Amino acid sequence: MRKYILFKTLVVAAMSFLANGSAIAAPPICNQGAPVKFAELGWDSGRFYTELFRVILERGYGCKTESIPGTNAISQNALITGDLDVFAEYPTGRTLAVEQAAAEGKLKLVGNLLQGGIQEGFYVPEYVIKGDVSRNIKPLAPDLQSVPQLAKYATIFADDEDPSKGRILNCPIGWQCESDNAQKIKAYGLASKYTNFHPGTGAALDATIVSAFQRGKPIVFYYWQPTSILGKYKAIRLTEAPYNEACWKTISDKATAAPCPSASPPNTVKAILSQKISASEPQLLALANNVSLTMDSIQAQLAKLDGGKMTARQAADDYIQANPESVKQWLPSGIAEKVLASKSQ
Question: Closest Cα partner for 322 from 291, 345, 343?
């Protein structure tokens, strides 16, 4: 009996040692207790993806996370230097510095977050072309279909500060789309006819667009999908010249004085991870590789952000709870169960 008790004690001790040893040997997560630092993105889908990743890391892996403000250029450079860890939504081909850094192994472009990629370009409200009988709005430009045609409609989209020109609502300064669009305005022969107008922030861009729609006013603006605004308001994307790699180089290089026209390149939406975080956190790398949403599914979530109905974090939580099978495909079973078992407040 005494030998049996001794044997049992040794077995229990050995099992405890192995369990503790496994815990010690488990790969560290979250910079060994330091927060995973996300770039704070200024647009709806970027905020949604950021919070989706943060919620999963916090609830599934017990991570600390934080969101750090900064322009896109500053944030992307901070990823290269390792001062930031994650830029949650990046359409490939958008920024030369990012592409070069990825090619040199200084950061990683990971995953396929949006099936089919982002749609982007210059939009006008549907009522500008088709009118709106319910609001007694007559069509102002019934044959408008393409960006080059804007040249003859400058008076319709008159600039409030200089009515002799039209106004094209561009992105805020510091966003890559701002310099790309400035080059496109030149390439399509619109620079002498339109003011290239820059709102101060992404929120100001959105507010200007929403105000025009609500008042039934003509506006030509750059935007993209998926977004809450284009989920709520009917707009038509104007056609551009087909994508041309050589011409796109003249557009993406703002120093080119005479760019030639091209639509934006086809893209895959990826997360940018710093080289440091991708090497030290395989769980995060796997998560970024696995997350993928359809245009309809993310558009539905972004529509819930409109008017403050939900915060980006609440929309991420809402998606997780409504799509448990997707979460189970993204994560190991034990982690998925943790994520699905609780909800952020």
Answer: 343
